[in-house]
Amino acid sequence: MQESSAYGEKMRQWAAERQFQIDKRKAQEERKDNGSQVWFSRYVHQGRLRHWVLVIEGTKYELKQEKSSNDFIFRVKKQNGWTAELAKRNAALKEKYKPEVSDEHRKKYVCLIGWTHLPPSDLKSIADDIFKQFGTYHLLWNNCQTILQEFSDKILHDRALDYPWFREHTRTEFQQHQQPPRPPTEITMEQLQQQQQQILRETRNQERVHQIQHDIQTQQMIIQLQLQRDIGLNAAQMHLAMNPALTDPSLSAATNPALNPAIMPPPPV
Description:
With 269 residues, the protein is α+β, with helices and mostly antiparallel strands. Helix content is 51%, strand content 18%. The protein is built from seven helices and seven strands, in the order H-E-E-E-E-H-E-E-H-H-E-H-H-H. Strands 1, 2, 3, 4, 5, 6 and 7 form a seven-stranded antiparallel β-sheet that branches.
């Protein structure tokens, strides 16, 4: 009981700290006096990291492979639907405490990494200069991540809370508070016992359902047999009604010439 109470207090502290981290994040994101916001979108597909993108004032900056030639380019292009994506991300942050835009197969982690005072023309020039020095693409050490990290180093004048995670793959305080504290062993065992009891109850309920289904099927078979018997009796009664000789002794084969050729009179000569 004492461990349960202590764990409950730890959970309350964790929830309060998580909300504090969210509030800090929101306060940064609502600033309008620090230049253009630089957003980082990290795309994961079926558990695998697939792509990095930076978005500034609705324009995305990314390393992209051309489908026609397979050549890589540092693409600067207006991001369609960015406002809607941010709205989904903000809703997820409010409801699930994670800045994610997700569907069945893919997940985007969207966070603010800093601010820039540079106009779009200067950003484009810097992107072009970096790409000239990019060299040969390599999946592990010369890719969409490395080029955007170098790009951010040249354009940011102020960094947001999630910048260390973007730049150095270091977990931020907010990310550290996304997972609740582990419960004590006693509480874990109690939860396991409750789960086992629930499973046992569900199993018993399933067995009861199976028994009821079996009883219904048995009753249906009995009714079908009774119907078949009744149909057979009705058919026999109709047959007897249509053939009275089968039940009337006076019309039996022993006395009825129509039924016994042996006693039929000889034909006329």
